[in-house]
Fold this protein.
Amino acid sequence: MPTFHLTSFGCRASQADGVALKRQLRDAGFAEAEDPAHSDVAVLNTCTVTGTADSEVRQVIRRIHRQNPRCRILVTGCYAQRAPEEIAALDGVAWVLGNSHKHRVAEVLRSGLPGAEHPEVLPLDPPGEIPAKVMVGEISPEFHFAPAFPDDRTRPTLKVQDGCDARCAFCIIPAVRGPSRSLSPAEVIGEVQDLERRGAREIVLSGINLGSYGRDLSRSITFLGLLERILNETAIARLRISSIEPMDVTPELIRLVAREARLADHFHVPLQSGSDRILRLMNRRYWTRQYAERILAIRESLPQGGIGADVMVGFPGETTQDHRGSADFIEGLPFTYLHIFPYSARPGTPAAGRPSQVDGRLAHERGAELRAIIARKRRAFLESQVGSTLPALTLADGLGRGDSNAPASPTPGSRTALTSNYLPVSIESANLPPNVLVDLQIGRLSGGVLHGFAARAV
């Protein structure tokens, strides 16, 4: 039986695709290997949101080929969609399948290369003797990849939307993931019920642009309506919204999260910049005033809620004055964490060819300044949680890839739990198994890590 090892890079939507790919490969008769050094095939499900993401994939390809020259490497995902020939030129790569063909990974591996003597048998000719097979085309309007239950049996991600119709000047995602498309409400309900039957207590709803959910299906279908249907038609214990754009954070959505205990007290609302001038250059569809109104409305309705954002530094044309205004804007809002990253030029995007590119060292300094601001704000928020009782879910092994919040480092004899308001807490007893909902009594903050104990299981 041929073996495979799969690695997913990037966002929660990509992680969800990776879990579904594992299920398809197992169903197709492949056995999963613990690492690519002992695998017939390595499948890399890639991200291309930054140059760093591309570089990480190339490094992994080189390492796999060096450690296991006979391992055939299949690269799929966003980087494969954007730059297939660049990947195909790397030693060890046998197949490059863009997002357009990602759903055919198992089929391609089972059939082998064109002209193989026994197409049902995985070819194991030394890599490099046969040119890499490249399969990239237009993104299908179909919605692919229903979820699979993750191996650690905690917090499965249910991707309900894919693609994006926005045209942010810095973003390559619409080109590599296609237009916005949605899983039908009936299918979403069925998947939630199935995940619940398999033991899920918390499900993370994800997408590339969640707020656009349903617009491709019907004018009457909305993300808010989907949440209400899930709450009414399933018994899932907790739902978490992974990320939602500012203009989709409506008063109705905030009220629903505030009154419904089964919805996590947590909003992740991408900001990108706290400068109106830069937001216009980015082609973002809101002003800082509108953004602030929504964040303050969340805090008013959820006094202890977790509030996070993505922030970009060093966008082309960003001046010292723009950065100072962005830092002051962030200082004035009740964020509990931020994901801060430098601008990375993506070929094919409007921003890539613009003049006034910001020096990388300067962007790094600006990022460090914002990290210092959020570090102070986060510590104050953590301190405010000491002495409180918070609902949480015990985890198998930290938060995992794709989460912006830094996980607690479990100490010997402890277990990490994730609170409803998105705080990792070290439980001072490891007796509780993973995937258990508990009420945690927060006892102390030590070394930036919250510590507590389970007051009761829910």
Notes: The mean pLDDT is 90. The first strand starts at residue 3 and ends at 8.
